[in-house]
Amino acid sequence: MVKTAVFTGTQNGLKIKTWGRPSDSYVKGVVFEHAMMQNVQNPIIITQNYCPGNKNCPDQYSRVKISEVTYNDVRGSSTMPVVVNFDYSPTRPCSGIGLHDIQLTCNNGPARAFCKHAGGSIAGDVVPPSCLRF
Asked: Which InterPro entries match (predicted)?
């Protein structure tokens, strides 16, 4: 659980990443709540395609299963238009993502969400609109 955090001018806010290599591991039951973003490049981001320097893992997808990740009361601003980024592996799509009372804006225009192989639910006001599959 990450609770009551402030991120100011950072590259990433609430981030989960898994290496783009085979694995039978999992990430489950993570809760992020009461987070404030101030000029953060990637306020909410999960990627299963992390490959530093594109060495030893290009074109591979992570097999780490990510599920039951909840974001509750996340607010603030981003320096980039994609403020919610869920980029999951087609071999281990994500399920059970919860977005509850999210209010994120972009300093340089409209904010948006990006989802690839991600499913979950929303509750309360979620801005920008969610792209999760239900």
From this structure: Glyco_hydro_28, Pectin_lyas_fold, Pectin_lyase_fold/virulence
